[in-house]
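seq:
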Amino acid sequence: MESSGKEEAEEGWIEFYDSFNEMFEFFCNNTTIHGTIRLTCSKRNKMKTSFWVVLFFFSFGMMYWQFGLMTGQYWSYPTSMTINLDSTINTYPAVTICNLNPYRFDQVNKYIKQLDRMAERTLYSLYGYNASAAKERDQETVDLEELLENMENQSDGSFQLNSGIRLVKLQENGQDPGVSGQSKSRVGFQLCNSSGGDCYYRSFWSGVDAFHEWYKFHFMNIMSRIPLLLPIKKEEIMKNFILACDHGGMPCDERNHTHFHHPIYGNCFTISNLGAGNVSRESQAGKQSGLTLTVKTDQNDNMPLLSTSAGARIMIHNPHQPPLVEHEGFDIWPGKETSINIKQDQVNRLDGVYSDCTTDGSTVGFNLLYNTSYTLQSCLHSCFQYKMIDLCGCGYYLYPLPPGAEYCNYNKYPGWGHCFYRLYDKFVDHRLSCFSKCPKPCRETIYQLTAGTAKWPASNSRNWVIPLLSWQNGYNSTSSRSDVSKINLYFQGPIHRSFDEVPAMPVTLLLANMGSQWSLWFGSSVLSVAEMAELVFDAAVMLTIVAYRWQSKKKLSKAAIPPTNSRDENTAIDLEKTEFPRKPLECIRDKDPAAEKSDPPKN
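struct:
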């Protein structure tokens, strides 16, 4: 075979570019990124080359601007809410009902009588109303030692009612005493700090609201030595209030009833564990599968100046939640049948980097004062009580106490009322740090309620309903008005909603969006990203080689010996500048024997 005479170069395992220009030209001619070939094919037209260079870097910048926006959105950890429908009830609600008739305890009854007489004088001086005639009724008093086992006498010591905190008429601004003949006026009472240097009026436009708040303020001072919630265990108390209790047509189990006494709302009963052991009934709706209560709603209150409502107060809540009837309950009319349909919503929030929600309240920085699972209201009330103790020196009577603290009364803490109402106004206006310290629970059950009422029993049914209640439940009617109520609680439908928080920008969606932007601006794929990475790597290697050669040459020039004559110097320079031609590689072939024989030997 004849040699072609052309240079044949074999491709080795590792080869590299001779210059940056060669590297960039190879990339533009072979990459899968759209538009890069225009940077080399139009190199003879400088205007086109400049245009494509500007367009290439503009697209590159826009793409990475979009990348920055998407990355910033990802690191903000946004969430979205999904709604799922389910027919299974995870948590059956508990029902707390109170009779709105608090007891008069023997231990403090004489002080309450003093307060009643002062209230009568106040009503007569402000409005000319003689309340003594209307108030003279049989008012039952209860001895705490008979109700509670191992009850310590916590009311030892004398109490002095502060007659200086009086209810007066005020001007429209609510801070100056009223004058005779004014058409409009507010009503309130003055509170001062412990030194008496800072005073202000707690005022109301409604005289009824002002009187009730003034009476409750004195009443809390009197009751400060009595425990807030009294776990009374006498069964006859429950039977005198709850005449009948049925769940799904079956009698309620009294072992699931919890009884306590509230100083404002009277005897309260919590009925829980209604769905235990009866899963099939939990998913059904309607009255026949719900809870039915027949309760006695007393018209003769033991504390008529404190409890001004007749009927009952009811609250539907999670069984692991404290029954905060003063904040979340609503009242039931006497002589009515009230039907309450319940819709259960389950809210599941993401924790960790997505929100500051908590599962058990371990991150709030203080111990909850309620012996239940974490709820937002229990955390807020606990935080407020700690603030109250820190700033006022004592605790608010309607909230539980931490160990070592005591409830406020103006005999020992004369300025606590001024401190409390100032602090409570900040609490209502969300100006306390409690709202930033108390996160939402990660898992929360919310019950949406819809109620309707009807007269019960009807006029033509009263003649047989009341005797039947008297025969079966020992009910004795003591009033011409109806003092019984019927309450029906049931689920609205078999379908319940679950609101689940999910990440709005997961990693998969982030990568998909970045891929879409890459395709939009460059029309390429993941392999094109690898090509870009390869280009960056090759450029780094080229820079390393150039830097190494430059550094080596610099060291050699410093270590070289100066030449002895000019001829040697010129020779050295000429040798440096001399370019030696490359010889093409030729394959070694055996000579043809026939050719050797054809040549005649030379003599």
